[in-house]
């Protein structure tokens, strides 16, 4: 089975951009490491990055014909929305739920909660990817501040 650690990030100084990242493994073998940004016309928050990281990870898995995936996450709505224990509460959460339901047609998706910022190696890596995606190396012209 493939395990994919996912995470998202956001910075209040650049409210129209959120970052996402994922690390995919089979056992201890790294299959894919990816990061990116999502842009919006309105203010975003880390939720956009969190949900986008899962969608991008599952798109990658589907493109590789992977039929069983465990999503390792630290943002509770990732699992709660997917298994029906939470109702969509925003446009992005509704889009995420529709995306999950689409991917469920092609693969079995399992979830594993990990504690955020607790030195879980691959979760920390996914977190750093999401943060680097919104760093000045990717998003030119912005200076990042602690908010």
Automatic annotation (TrEMBL):
Residues 1-135 form the RNase H type-1 domain. It comes from the Bacteria. Pfam families: RNase_H (PF00075). This is RNase H type-1 domain-containing protein.
């Amino acid at each position: 089975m493939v395990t994919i650690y996912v995470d998202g990030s956001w910075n209040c100084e650049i409210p129209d951009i959120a970052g996402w990242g994922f690390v995919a493994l089979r056992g201890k073998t790294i299959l894919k490491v990816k990061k990116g940004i999502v842009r919006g016309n309105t203010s975003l928050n880390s939720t956009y990055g969190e949900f986008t990281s899962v969608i991008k990870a599952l798109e990658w898995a589907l493109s590789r014909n992977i039929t069983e995936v465990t999503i390792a996450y630290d943002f509770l709505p990732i699992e709660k929305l997917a298994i029906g224990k939470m109702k969509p509460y925003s446009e992005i959460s509704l889009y995420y739920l529709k995306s999950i339901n689409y991917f469920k047609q092609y693969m079995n998706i399992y979830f594993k909660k990990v504690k955020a910022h607790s030195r879980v190696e691959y979760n920390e890596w996914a977190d750093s990817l999401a943060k680097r995606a919104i760093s000045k190396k990717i998003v030119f012209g912005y200076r990042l501040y602690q908010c």
